[in-house]
């Protein structure tokens, strides 16, 4: 028994898949889409999320400088800000 071509008499048959006269018919076409076997679906459990603990340092002073991004003084009393301000006034 020959599975890919059951018609062994040399006759030609029309194959819908090949859209031509072939030595096989539509049912015995080697290009026919065969149903895929049921593949078991693998359940993927979510990995436990790493617990991220935010570490914050408590500054000695609640004042924060937006100019130099440091704690301990505010923007207007920042030494770097004062220098820049003086330089821009003298120009």
From TrEMBL:
Organism of this sequence: Oesophagostomum dentatum
Q: What is the lineage of its organism?
A: Eukaryota, Metazoa, Ecdysozoa, Nematoda, Chromadorea
| Extent of Basic and acidic residues compositional bias | 28-44
Q: Where is this region: Disordered?
A: 28-56
Protein's name in the database: Zinc knuckle
